[in-house]
Amino acid sequence: MKTAAPWVRTRLRTAPGSAAALLLLVLVTSFLAAAFPGAVDAYESRGLRHEVSATSPDGTVIQLSSDPGQDVDGGPQARTDALRARRLTENYRQILAALPGSLRVDTRQSAYGARTLKPVEVTDTWLPELNGGLPVFTLSAQTAVAEHSTPVSGRMPRATAGSVTPATGTVEAAVTSATAGALRIKVGSTIHVPRAEGAPLAVRVTGIVEPLRPQQSYWSVESVLRTPTYLHTPDQPPLPYWHGSLLLAPEAAPVLLSMPVDTEAYWRIAPDPAGMDIAGLPRIKQTIASLEHGPLQSALRTEIAPWLETSSGLDDVLIEFDGIRAALKPVVAVAAFGVGSVAAVVLLMTGGLAASRRHAELSLLRSRGGSVRGIAGRLLAEVAVPVLTGAALGCALALVAVPEGRTLPALLASAAVALFGCATLPLRAAFVHRRPRLHGDRDDLVRARPSRRRTVAELTLLVLTVAAVTALRRRDTSDGDADALISAAPVLVGVIAALLLVRLYPLPLRLAALPMARRRGAVGFLSLARAGRSSAASTVLPLLALLVALTTTAFGGSVLSGVADARDRASLAAIGADARIDADQGLPDALAGTVRKVAGVSDVAPVHREYDLDLRDGRLERVTLLAVDPDSYARLAGRTGLGPFRAAELRKSSGVLPALASPAVAERLRGGTATIGSAAEPFSVRVDMVRSTTPAATDGDFLVIDAAGLPGRHPASMLLISGPSVAGADLDSAARAAGSATVKLRSAERAGFTTSPVQSGAERIYAVAAGVGAGYAVLALVLSLLQTSAERAALLGRLRTMGLTRRQGRRLLILENLPQALLAAVGGALVGWVAILLLAPGIDLGRLALADRAVSLGEVELRADPLSLLLPALALVAIASAVAAAQAWVITRRTTTTELRAGDTR
After folding, report:
1. pLDDT at position 900, please?
2. CA distances (Å), 536 to each of 443, 447, 504, in order?
3. Burial label, 464 (beta-carbon count in 10 A; 0-12, 13-18, 19+)
4. Where are the alpha helices (DSSP H) in 358-438?
5. Contact (CB, 8 A) for 814 and 888
6. Which of 757, 772, 7 is nearest to 361 (CA)?
7. Over the chain, what is the mean pLDDT?
8. pLDDT confidence of 894, banded at 50, 70, 90?
9. Closest listed residue to residue 838, CA positions, set 342, 497, 343
10. Lower Cβ count inside 10 Å, N or C end of the chain?
11. Which residues pair with 703 in a beta bridge?
């Protein structure tokens, strides 16, 4: 006696195409689900590294310092020993050993040594003396100067270990080439530094060096080590004097104790951005907090110095980044919930399609004694083979494609897809066949009456949706304070709309069928009748998938459109035109004419700008005077929308200059005639126009007048250039005649808003989510047609025996699917618009658009984008018609005998 063939193997061999399609669907869904958390981790990690790298070294380095006079018990010898190079190196190693592995240290850019806390004066008159006096110097004995520089002339300073004491009379030093050039120091020069007691310390310069990688931490935490700067006296007006640095040998550090200012030992720990990722961010913040005011600081004070001080700006950088990340996360979660919901509906439809096609088979099994549990178990084993295989392959591909992400979230996401994919067919079959029955009642959309359970479920979803929308409107996402319910609000709105449209769908069908019944020809009436005969259960899921996909696509498109618009407005507000040429002094008169001839330039507005205009009201608030050409400036203001006005309103008609002012300046001048300006060149103005913005003033208060009415000669200090296609290189060449003039482009300013990987990553996630949602929507459309394809084919076969032509049959199938496509398209556009309208007050796109510069525009609200609403809806109707036409073409080419068989109940 032969053994019965195994169920799973038999079913897979019977329908290999269906199994392969299910495997492919689960593979793609599992890949997307597993890749999403990894992609978010990847762009957030890149954003973290970018923020740390882009911050100046003095804002990220961890600085530890100790005052030998306070932290060392004992006499002068103990304080001297505390500054020995050997002791400082030992302390540096202790600090590195105490730091946890979560904070990786860049040892190549870390530094330690000793220095004077304040610059000290020198007595050498051969040094260049500015108005503020002779130069001052910071004396620094920093280790590894030779490894971080190249010699230009001379040699590195030397000192024998243990030979230098506070009483040593002469030490050697090096200076950088920038310091040597500015202060006229040469190899062999001797600089005398007064001590607190006794004869001055003679510092002999033995070498001039050129720093390697001067912008990195070693040289940039204390930039005076590489480049001299100006300091200013406390006099009025302040007078400048030079501040340079002398680089002593590390072994000469004890001599700093004899200086008339305090001395400190320091250790500057440079974090390595390459070792940071988003998973370790909480541990890094915890480490910084422990170093500044916690157990780690206490441990280092025990080992190194009792009053060891620790400070770092890295925690501020991390807090700022965490704020940007938290603000973006709820916005990205909206896209994730939308795509996840559409994917879940498609998986449900796949199970429903399989269950409906095997309805007769499963009914036969139930009528012959098969239990619900047994049938569900066999179906589970059958679908587990392709589903688990696809989920595993998708997860593996995601981990390979996005290796930076954490593994556990990817595994959980793929496991959720596998569980959902395995459960859809068994649960659907168990529910439908929970009782044996020969024939089911009609479940037409027109005739179906919602049950009490369905009404309760719909009301529950309605309550959840209202709660989510209300919470989101009250508790916006700008601070990242949003949970899953709020992020799922657009999806819940789509679900409620789908259920509402299914309830309302029969009404327009009935109304449209009335005139069709009176017309000649059966195609129109039959198409509407067929649309009304669709199963209510088979209509809800496709409509739900299409509505959620369209809502997500419209929401995502509106987000991206709002981000682009905010960046356009911010870049325009920052530059004032398409390009701008600035100069601290006046620009040549001929430059405006030269710029007008540059390719791509359509207009030029010259502006004379003066800061600190004296309004003679005794107040200290800063006001910027803008003297303009009324015609060109009015054209620019009207074109940009930044405080438009008529040129005639700014021209002088009497002795008083009409002016355009910001609201604060208008309030200070009180709307009357006022004499303002310097005592040498006063002029009278009257505020005739008040505007909150103007192209030539990016921030602060301003007063705009006609340049022709300003007393004296005042050449333009700014050119505002119109021309979206103007090239920066052409403007640079034209501006060289102005000497120190700088050229700024609006396009470059706008590009600066997208440099953060967090912003660009979130935008890519949204763009991919919109595309994936559209793909799943098309798949849902195809599945809805496949679910009733056999019934359509049989009906068309019967109608063809009654004389229906192939052309009429194709028209019938296309028109039958058109009502549902139109319902989904119109409903999707309306639901997307309503969702954006309801949720916009609670969503601030400022962080996504402008990151930390969002304050320049205030709150950037989400607004509905017409193209994002209409294009997906129109595309849906076109795709639905194309798919229906393709299905009609295939069906009408078959012979009638192929579709009609004796006993067929379709």
Report:
1. 56
2. 6, 9, 12
3. middle
4. 359-367, 372-401, 407-432
5. yes
6. 7
7. 82
8. low
9. 497
10. N
11. 625, 661
Separation between Cα atoms, residue 854 and residue 758, nearest integer Å: 14
Task: Answer whether residue 838 shows pLDDT above 80.
Answer: no
Give 427's contacts (C-beta < 8 A, 6+ positions apart): 351, 376
pLDDT at 449 over 70: no
Please tell me whether residue 264 adopts helix, strand or coil conformation.
Answer: strand
pLDDT at 902: 45
Measured at the CA of 342, the angle between CA 336 and CA 843, to 5 degrees, comes to 40
681 phi and psi, to 5 degrees?
-135, 70
**CA 687-690-694 angle, 5° bins:** 115
Residue 156, judged by CB atoms within 10 A of its CB (0-12, 13-18, 19+), counts as middle
Look at the block and give the residue holding tokens 């809800």: 540
Rounded to the nearest 5 degrees, what angle is found at the Cα of 583, between the Cα atoms of 582 and 588? Answer: 105
CA distance 250 to 748: 45
Residues listed for the chain:
906
Pairing assessment for the beta strands 201-211 and 170-176 based on DSSP bridges:
parallel
Which two tokens mark 446? 């027109």
Going from the C-alpha of 325 to that of each of 450, 549, 889, the distances in angstroms are 44, 26, 51
Q: What global pTM score does this model have?
A: 0.78
Cα-only R_g, the chain: 38
Mean pLDDT within 33-40:
91
Pairing outcome for strands 718-722 and 309-312: unpaired
335-349, 381-395, 515-529, 673-687: least confident range = 515-529
Q: Which tokens sit at 822?
A: 């139109």
> CA 644, CA 640: separation in Å to the nearest integer?
8
Give the Cα separation of 437 and 460 in Å (integer): 31
- Decide if 792 contacts 899 (C-beta within 8 A): no
The encoded tokens of residue 871 equal 């294009």
Q: Residue 898 corresponds to which tokens in the numbers above?
A: 């192929």
Burial of residue 729, with CB atoms counted within 10 A of its CB: 0-12 exposed, 13-18 middle, 19 or more buried: exposed
User: Can you give the three-state secondary structure of 718-777, one letter per residue?
Assistant: EEEEECCCCCHHHHHHHHHHHCCCEEEEHHHHHHHHHCCHHHHHHHHHHHHHHHHHHHHH
**Residue 227 burial by Cβ neighbours in a 10 Å radius (0-12, 13-18, 19+):** middle
Give the span between the Cα atoms of 493 and 475, in whole angstroms. 18
CB contact at 8 A, 535 and 444: yes
Name every residue whose Cβ is closer than 8 Å to that of residue 838 and which is 6 or more positions away in sequence: 469, 473, 489, 493
SS3 139: strand
- Give me the amino acid identity at 443: D
Rounded Cα gap, residues 12 and 860, in angstroms: 54
Rounded Cα gap, residues 873 and 887, in angstroms: 21
The amino acid at residue 203 is V
Burial class (CB in 10 A: 0-12, 13-18, 19+), 205: buried
Please determine, for residue 538, whether its predicted confidence score (pLDDT) is greater than 90: no
DSSP string, 605-660: EEEEEESS---SSS----EEEEEE-HHHHHHHHHHHTSS---GGGGS--SSSEEEE
Sequence-separated (6 or more) residues with CB below 8 Å from residue 372: 366, 430, 433, 434
The answer, yes or no, to whether residue 133 has pLDDT greater than 80, is: yes
Distance of alpha carbon 385 from alpha carbon 672, whole angstroms: 85
AA identity, residue 514: L
Predicted local confidence at residue 3, as pLDDT: 45
Within 10 angstroms of residue 653's Cβ, the number of other Cβ atoms is 8
- Split at pLDDT 50, 70, 90, the class of 828 is confident
- Spell out the alpha helix ranges (H) of 519-652: 523-532, 536-575, 591-596, 630-640
Sign, CA torsion 761/763/765/767:
negative
176, β-bridge pairs: 209
